[in-house]
Amino acid sequence: MEEKLRQLREESLQAIRSADALDALDALRVKYLGKKGELTAVLKQMGTLSAEARPVMGQLANQIREELTEAVETARASLSEKALELRLAAEKTDVTMPGLPVRIGRRHPLNKVIGEAKEIFIGMGFTIAEGPEVELSDYNFTRLNTAEGHPARDRQDTFYFDDDDEVLLRTQTSPVQVRVMETQPLPIRIISPGRVYRKDEVDATHSPMFHQIEGLVVDEGITFADLKGTLNELVRRLYGPDTKTRFRPHHFPFTEPSCEVDVQCFECGGRGCRVCKGEGWIELLGAGMVHPRVLEGCGIDTRKYSGFAFGVGAERMAMFRFGISDLRLMFENDTRFLEQF
Ligand code: DAH
Question: Is the CB of 286 under 6 A from ligand 1?
Fold first, then answer.
């Protein structure tokens, strides 16, 4: 039996030391030291030994068990360390490798023209004002001198939130005029870019959501000449110093007198083409002298103060500015389109 034990010891120690993986090592541990393992099998034969030999063999067997256990632990430690080293080597990052290029986007053409307009107006002493997109009918219509029953209030054109038609998605940025006159001290010189909403079917020139830039100036002695000078400056800065404008009489409830401003067609230079439908001119914005009723409704003394206001369609501005022929391109977010600006 002693011979058997020593042989087992030799064989198992060698096997354990040469194990090359953790799972192989574990299999060896089971094979030699497990409940049904080889060492146990030898020990089961102890009963056949003489009373003197038994303790000697028992001691030897225990010693071998300890030796083997220790050998397994040592081998496990070195195999784990090796495995960790391999993993670290495999996962090593080379910080000197060139990085993955980040695709940088660009500003949307609409934000570009709005940004340009802001720059131009800030240069003329204007500040930027903001108003809510969810607006009260009172601000969107009534206080802009647009009475009950006016066609602009129609449910066909306006998104209302309630049956009483009191809360709506603003159809124009003009309500910001009232909000500013209510809260800011005079003189006032603001522009207010933002989204507006109307129940329009989508086509090449219509969208149920679009952008406007509102403008308002209120001070002593403001005249139509100030309006013309300011808007001519805007147009020339946006479209070039030789761009011609045309001020055409029009009607808006909140201005008196009112006008629409056309610019000479960017496509044909005024001769008449498909873009301007043969007119030679393209409508850019609405404007006028602020109606005394609107000023007085905001507590402004019209014997002392007067003002002008205007509202530009921002999509229109961008379309002229960049020669874009279809409004829908602006909202589809096709990067092949957007990359061009
Ligand atoms: N709010 C008008 C519209 O959406 C545009 C407009 C016209 C704004 C005249 C003004 C203005 O401030 O004076 O059609």
Answer: yes
Distance, CA of 79 to CA of 70 (rounded, Å): 14
Residue with the smallest CA separation from ligand 1 atom 10 is 310
For the chain, how big is the Rg over CA atoms in Å?
43
* Nearest atom (ligand 1) to Cα of 216: 12
**pLDDT tens-digit series, residues 244-284:** 999 999 999 999 999 999 999 877 888 988 778 899 998 99
| Residue 296 per-residue DSSP state | H
Centre of ligand 1 from the C-alpha of residue 39, in Å: 99
Rounded to the nearest angstrom, the distance between the alpha carbon of 286 and the centre of ligand 1 is 5
Of 134, 131, 125, 203, give the one whose Cα is nearest residue 162: 134
pLDDT tens digits, 65-103: 888 888 888 888 888 898 888 889 888 888 888 889 998
Mean pLDDT of 329-337: 93
Q: Is the CB of 43 under 6 A from ligand 1?
A: no
Burial-class residue 275 by CB neighbours within 10 Å (0-12, 13-18, 19+).
Answer: middle
- The closest residue, in CA terms, to atom 2 on ligand 1 is 311
In what side-by-side order are the strands of the sheet with 305-313?
Answer: 127-128, 188-197, 209-220, 305-313, 281-290, 255-264, 245-252
Q: Which of 337, 317, 338 minimizes the C-alpha distance to 116?
A: 317
- Model pTM? 0.72
Distinct helix (H) and strand (E) counts, the chain:
12, 9
Distance 252 CA to ligand 1 centre (A): 7
pLDDT tens-digit series, residues 216-243: 999 999 999 999 999 999 999 988 999 9
Work out the number of other CB atoms within 10 angstroms of the CB of residue 247.
16
Nearest CA to 112 among 201, 209, 18, 211? 211
Q: Select from 206, 136, 148, 208 the least CA-distant residue to 176.
A: 136
